[in-house]
Amino acid sequence: QVQLVESGGGLVQAGGSLRLSCAASGRTISAYAMYWFRQAPGKEREFVAAISGSGGITKYADSVKGRFTISRDMTKNTVYLQMNTLKPEDTAVYYCAADVRVILLPSPRASAMDYWGEGTLVTVSS
Fold first, then answer.
1. Residues 67, 71, 76, 78: what is their CA dihedral angle, to the nearest 10 degrees?
2. What is the pLDDT of residues 23-44, one digit of tens each?
């Protein structure tokens, strides 16, 4: 069993930056593909970013390419999401998730994730 805890959310003005962290416990996640999803009020959960078990391959939603960066620290068993040039439409609860499969999904789906964190709220004001 893996527990995931997100942190780093908050209120920021448009154009600002935030760094989210996802700390894992219970077992190592070094061999797991890790994902970030987000869910805005009244909307469905959507894929944001993913990173392979090795950390060498990443994938991003078109809406965040060039602005967000996903990374991981194997020693700390932690995954990060650096968010720059934030926009009001980025406002959402951000969740990290783990897939025990090391290969990144061609089309990431929330239903395919094995473990979820409780989420951290990011609010971007205009």
1. 70
2. 999 998 888 999 999 999 999 9
The beta strands (E) that lie in 8-114 are given as: 10-13, 18-25, 33-39, 46-51, 58-60, 68-73, 78-83, 92-99
The β-bridge partners of 98 are 34, 115
Cα torsion angle, 20, 4, 120, 43, sign: positive
pLDDT above 70 as % of the chain: 100
pLDDT score of 102 more than 80: no
| Closest among 45, 50, 52 to 30, alpha carbons compared | 52
